[in-house]
Amino acid sequence: MKISLPTAQSSVDVTKLLCIGRNYAKHAAEMKSDVPDEPLVFLKPPSALVRDGGTVVLPAASQDVHHEVELVAVIGTGGKNIPEAEALSHIAGYAVGLDMTARDLQREAKQGGRPWSVAKGFDTFAPLGSIAPASSIADPQDLTIRLTVNGDERQAATTRDMIFPVAELIAYCSRIFTLMPGDLLYTGTPEGVGPVQAGDQLEATVTGVPPLRVTVERAAS
Ligand code: MG
């Protein structure tokens, strides 16, 4: 999928979605998981992206798909081994995203010592809102993040509570992967995750960025 960067004239292909697990202590606790001592990184394929106004399709393989609302940083200037002090200057903009997760498949993967790719990677499992320019966000570590399901608030938190802040995540990820313009960094979900059902209307917001609204449907089998 192509996205338009606030800092560029032309659109770019998204080459990867970098996702962070357990980046809020209360979410790690609700998952009965330890707080990591370094970032827990996994990837989603760009084919999982869905835009604002789109549909999340529940796959037949899962009976327990959860919402995870997250701040997303959009890379504008790529790089390798980016110093933490320079990391925020590599960001073109911010958006709100959802890291949809087949919790039942993830639980089985964890128990079997297998990767999370299937639990996290289905088509439509990465809704992404429109991108606000980075210049409009004074401090990515001082934003309110919220999710409602059919108008009921399910998640509400502040990005102040991230264990690893955005700059540290970019520096860390760039030591592993060459970052490319258009790469998306899903920075982890706060507490309050839970299941979604066919027919649900999800609305995700982060201070200062356009809201994200998606509808949930069950895959035709
Ligand atoms: Mg997540």
Helix residue percentage: 10-25%
- Gyration radius (Cα, Å) is 16 Å
Strand order across the biggest sheet? 4-3-15-8-9-12
Average per-residue pLDDT, rounded, comes to: 96
Which ligands accompany this protein?
magnesium ion
Q: Give the H and E element order.
A: EEEHEEEEEEEHHEEEEHEEEE
End-to-end separation: 26 Å
| Count of discrete domains | 1
Q: What overall form do the CA principal axes indicate? A: globular
Q: Low-confidence parts, pLDDT < 50 over ≥5 residues?
A: none
Which class best fits the helix and strand makeup?
alpha+beta
Our count of helices gives 4
The CATH topology is: Fumarylacetoacetate hydrolase, domain 2
Q: Main traits of this protein?
A:
alpha+beta; binds magnesium ion; 221 residues; 6-stranded mixed sheet; Fumarylacetoacetate hydrolase, domain 2
Protein architecture, described:
The protein has a single domain, classed as Alpha-Beta Complex (Fumarylacetoacetate hydrolase, domain 2), CATH 3.90.850.10. A six-stranded mixed β-sheet has the order 4-3-15-8-9-12. The protein has a five-stranded mixed β-sheet with strand order 6-18-17-13-14, with no helix packed on it. Strands 10-7-16 form a three-stranded antiparallel β-sheet. It is of the alpha+beta class and 221 residues long. It contains four helices and 18 strands. It has helices at 25-30, 103-112, 117-121, 166-176; strands spanning 2-4, 11-13, 17-21, 40-44, 49-51, 55-58, 65-67, 69-75, 91-98, 101-102, 126-128, 132-133, 144-149, 152-158, 184-186, 194-195, 201-206, 212-218. The structure holds magnesium ion.
